[in-house]
Write a structure and sequence with these properties.
Elements lengths: L2 H22 L2 H8 L4 H26 L5 H19 L5 H27 L5 H26 L6 H17 L16 H5 L10 H30 L5 H25 L2 H21 L6 H9 L1 H19 L5 H30 L1 E2 L6 E2 L1 H22 L14
Antiparallel strand pairs: 1-2
Helix pairs in contact: 1-5, 1-6, 1-7, 2-3, 2-9, 3-5, 3-14, 4-5, 4-7, 6-10, 9-14, 9-15, 10-13, 11-12, 11-13, 11-15, 13-14
């Protein structure tokens, strides 16, 4: 692959995830501390990302894959997104924030699939080249997290303005990406294919059915972490919380490198159970840590992110691909994505917000949160899911040597 193309694709990934990372981690802190939204309202706002994840396959399948070149669609989505993010920064009511952020997420989340698709059409060896390009997305997330934390702007609307500026830059840069014509031009559109529903036949396998249900349920404690960890760390006066949270993405990169060794030595069930055990421990650490002598618990909880995420979700993607018949591999990945990032994350957003309100006394600026029991409830939930997998997932399969899953 020519260096110029590799460099442009890597920069594309970096910018695309800078945009998301700029506002996502600190969103709950801004909503609950500055705008004084309730936990339920903050959870609903977080749910816009899951709604967009459920809707974006329709957009990609109906429009981006059939009528316009990928780089032009990316440019248009990011230019529109920049305007919406700018508006979000000045919105103060629940209705306006929710509506604007939902509109923005509908623009942004298709770009994740589009950047992956564009990259795959311009590399020769996906298993070798794609991870080395995609990792720049994680580096972009880390870079903007460190910047937001260092500037101490987590409680302000400034992260939205940073994301808006990055969206303009990404929109302009998209026009310089390699030309990528619509991949499915002339083909008919199928709702079932777009959502991966063709793969529902795989549910006849009891172990896969248990895995699919567990994947949806696992997104609930996952959302507890993504939605409210930054708010919690700021509430207990941890310095540069956003910067410290980027250690989670750093650990994810490390675990990606370790995963091939783990996959060769352990069964799928063993890896899934270890991932869920890490979630259980992580939330217990968050519950008992503090900004003083117990701050080490926060560091360990954040650093467990690589195990928590890769051991369950990456292993799940590989297991799904391995179990799927050859003609259903893409549909199966679409189904798991819809169930996890769509259904599971949306349910988790609503439940985590309601749980925060359950453990909150008072309202507005005078609200006091019982964070310890909030995190212990999530730890208990992760442990229940662990038991479901340990007792009901009967497969002893290992991940065999296959082409990398993208």
């Amino acid at each position: 692959m020519p260096f110029s193309i590799r460099a442009r694709l890597s920069a594309m990934m970096f910018l695309n995830y800078v945009i998301w990372g700029a506002w996502y981690v600190t969103l709950s802190t801004y909503l609950t501390t500055t705008l004084h939204f309730t936990g339920t309202q903050a959870g609903a706002v977080f749910g816009t990302t899951a709604l967009a994840s459920m809707i974006s396959p329709f957009f990609v399948g109906l429009v981006a894959d059939r009528f316009f070149s990928t780089e032009r669609v990316l440019a248009a989505l990011h230019f529109i997104g920049a305007i919406l993010l700018w508006r979000v920064a000045s919105a103060t009511t629940f209705g306006s924030v929710y509506g604007l952020l939902l509109a923005y997420c509908l623009c942004y989340f298709p770009t994740i699939a589009l950047t992956n698709s564009l990259t795959l059409q311009h590399i020769q060896d996906p298993g070798r080249d794609f991870p080395l390009i995609r990792v720049f997305g994680t580096l972009g997330w880390i870079a903007i997290g460190v910047a937001v934390g260092s500037m101490a702007i987590e409680k302000s609307a400034t992260p939205f303005l940073l994301a808006s500026g990055a969206s303009v830059a990404m929109g302009l840069f998209s026009l310089a990406l390699p030309h990528t014509p619509p991949a499915a031009k002339g083909e008919s559109f199928s709702v079932g294919r777009a959502l991966g529903l063709d793969a529902l036949v795989m549910m006849k396998d009891k172990s896969f059915f248990v895995f699919a249900i567990a994947s949806v349920l696992a997104c609930i404690p996952l959302t507890f972490y993504f939605s409210f960890t930054n708010d919690y760390l700021n509430d207990v006066h941890v310095v540069n919380a956003a910067g410290k949270m980027t250690l989670g993405q750093a650990s994810e990169v490390v675990m990606m490198l370790v995963m091939p060794f783990v996959l060769r030595r352990m069964t799928v069930k063993g890896i899934l159970v270890m991932g869920l055990a890490a979630w259980t421990i992580r939330y217990a650490l968050l519950a008992h840590g503090n900004a003083g002598p117990g701050v080490w618990m926060f560091y360990v909880a954040i650093l467990l992110h690589g195990v928590c995420y890769d051991f369950f979700f990456m292993t799940g993607q590989l297991y799904t691909d391995q179990q799927a018949p050859a003609h259903l591999r893409s549909a199966a990945q679409g189904l798991i994505t819809f169930l996890t990032y769509g259904v599971g994350m949306y349910a988790g957003s609503l439940i985590s917000g309601s749980a925060l309100d359950l453990f909150t006394t008072g309202a507005g600026a005078g609200a006091t949160r019982d964070w310890r029991h909030f995190w212990l409830s999530s730890s208990a939930g992760a442990f229940v899911i662990l038991l479901v997998v340990a007792l009901m997932f009967r497969s002893r399969a290992k991940i065999e040597a296959t082409p990398a899953i993208i």
